[in-house]
Amino acid sequence: MTQASAPVSRRIHEIDAVRGFALGGILIANIGFFADPGYAVGMGAMPISEGPVALAVSTLILTKFYVIFSFLFGYSFTLQMRSWGGKVKSRMLRRCLGLFVLGVAHGLLLWIGDILTLYAVLGLLLLGMRDMRPRTAVKAGCWIIGVTSAIWLLLAGLTLLDPGGAATPALDAAAAARAEELVTGGPLSFLRFQVETYPVLAAFVWIGQGPMAMALFLFGLAAGKSRLFEEPERWARLVPRILWLGYGVGLPAAVFFTWSAQADGTTQLIGMAVNNVTSLMLAAAYVVTLLELIRRVPAVGGVLAPAGRVAASNYIGQSVLACLVFTGYGLALAGELAPVAVMGVAAAIYAVLLTLSARWLRHHRQGPIEWLLRRFTLLSAAPSRSR
What we know:
This protein is mainly α.
């Protein structure tokens, strides 16, 4: 990658569409924990653990979509740098503080797997690396992924020396039953579950997703400085190769990842090491496929882009709607629905958010969460209604 001189920052329709698409994947990845909260006490064990739905979610969704979001965070940061100019440091510091506060509130009140606090802290690191050249940023991201994968393989090797340590811990049935009881017992009971579980799961998210998210921040930084979305003709010749690697290598590796998750601890660790690299290939193939589809059928981008423009509001919104369906805040259906029905709820929530996003943006420039973050970031009363 080579850095390109940038024009004045503008809204990029393709980025919004990709972000709107990623929201759907994140919703599918997260909703299982709302539907079956007992797995939250297993520190990230996969919910909906049996059947074709579980296989499809694990293979096609898990670990594929948060990396897209992380990449877009890094890319969007370059657009903010162009827009903010000499005020980038102070504004990014305030933005990260706002994200952190929002993430803590989100984690305690709605979704224990919140990632905004992680993004806030890593955003500070990205701010310190903002002058890094694109090629250097790509190399640094590759080093992070390589070292992380090597650690997983090292741990797998150590478990061979201690076969007893490679056993996968079984889900505690009593703890799972208590979790479901708290989640469905009413608003105060659900809040108790959140307060008890959020700190532990937040640490799991930071450790499990932090290195990969930072690597993707750096890849996004490099791509933004190289204006990959603004000038797609620069990489159009790479489309066949990206698709081949994604579906020819990344997809079989994703199948292996799903199979390894049901095997012994050593095999699980090997699967995680492989997935650490190949999930990026499959995620990249998803993005390129979507961009090619939008190029041929622009209406697809028109449906997805509004949700991507108000992504923070939708991220919080999907947690609100999931809570209203599955927890004591609303219908308390956790543990009651079959996996296919849970996916149906996810589809309904996604459709509602797509519709609301489009309607909201007919009369407003930003989503409500975006407006609050922008006002705090700029320390000004940014207009929320379109004119």
